[in-house]
Amino acid sequence: MRKINTRSFVRATRSTPREINRQILLNLVREHQPISRADLARRMRVGRGMVTSLVSELIADGSVYEGTTVDAPRGRRPMMLHVRTHDRLVIGIDVRFSRTYLMLSDFSGTPIAMETFDTIVDPAGLVAELRRRIPRLLKTYKAVGKCNGIGLVVPGMVDRRTGRVLNAPQLGWRDVDVRDQLAAATGFDVQIENAPIACALAQMWLGQRGGDAPRDFVYVTVSDGVGAGLVVNGEVVRGHNSTAGEFGHVPIDPHGPTCLCGSRGCLEAYTSNLATLSRYLGHEFSPAETRELLNESRISITDVIARARSGEARASAALHETARHLGVGLAVIINTLNPAQIFVGGEITEAWDQLSPAIHDIINARALTSTAAATPLIPDPASSYPRLRGATALIAAREFAAPQVA
Ligand SMILES: [Zn+2]
Higher-confidence residue: 78 or 320? Predict the structure, then answer.
């Protein structure tokens, strides 16, 4: 029988036991749906009366609905419970180095619509563009009045309290407010988060594995930059001032290429998509030249992966070197944090079969114990839009997460 997962409920000191039971019950429905009241009572080890009363509350406020019945061996056929997600919508926004993506999806992260445009690096210009696009998107998909909020993920560090972007090297942002500007411009509740942390939250709250959410893991994103979301004992590790988890800026070689952060030889300067593309095009990665190089060549990381698949040696070599450096970075994570598993998200997961032997070779050579070397690496397919799911989780997870003390 399942042990009750307390996850972040330890922090919910102002909540009553009834509120906590309500959240636990909602999460049990989310993780095991469809599920009957009797099964919930067994899993929670509380009386049927308590479950019936909590379920009635959750049905009344629209969080849970009764779906189909199932055949029971005898007696009444139980009504199965589901979390209501389909008509509760979220706009997820992923701001990246070159492109910005918008996705309208439901509370479970199922996409309804997506659009993309060239990233506007000026924060006021970006907010103005989003202000134009969001109402249009909602109107087109008959979603006006159904949107519960906007989740925004950025390639940088975000202050949890103020929502300000502390430093996003790819965008050149330092101490920038987008959250409050976007909220004021659209009238929606806006939540903002560092992209890798948001991807980790999506693993915790939107996972569809029919089981407990992972509690000790790292989510590594490899995109235009490289970042990590760390989860220890069911809590995201943010550090004292919200800047923890910047594994992309672990130095690999102090004399290596200049990174977007201004230092030299960071892991990111060897393993990001921009670094892989520069290598493929025969250049050392350079922040000053990359944007121009990409504009001139019009080649994307997906093209390099496709060329490697079709047997082009130069493309395979560029990816292989990325894999070796990524192995070093993952070994650092394994040796410092000893996570139960590491998720890897980003376009390069499409070439995972080609990359993983080199990654595992490096990890095997560098991990300090054989169990550490065996830490599962799980590619999160790019086709599931992990960053946009992460943005969605920022709004949807509040429903499921423990009531927090401010
Ligand atoms: Zn760096």
Answer: 320
| Separation of alpha carbons 107 and 82, rounded Å | 12
Q: Which two tokens stand for residue 201?
A: 């939250």
Has residue 2 got a pLDDT over 90? no
CA of 264 to the centre of ligand 1 (A): 7
CATH 1.10.630.10 fits 7-83, yes or no: no
> Which fold would CATH assign to domain 89-202+387-400?
Nucleotidyltransferase; domain 5 (3.30.420)
Would the pLDDT of 394 be above 60? yes
d(CA 376, CA 171): 32
How far, in Å, from the CA of 267 to the mean position of ligand 1?
7
Strands 190-194 and 147-154: parallel
Q: How far is the CA of 21 from the centre of ligand 1 (A)?
A: 44
The three-state secondary structure class of 40 is: helix
Q: How far apart are CA 66 and CA 64, in angstroms?
A: 7
Dist CA 338 CA 336 (whole Å): 6
For the entire predicted model, the pTM comes to 0.85
- Residue boundaries of the structural domains of the chain: 7-83, 89-202+387-400, 213-382
Phi, psi of 41 (to 5 degrees): -60, -40
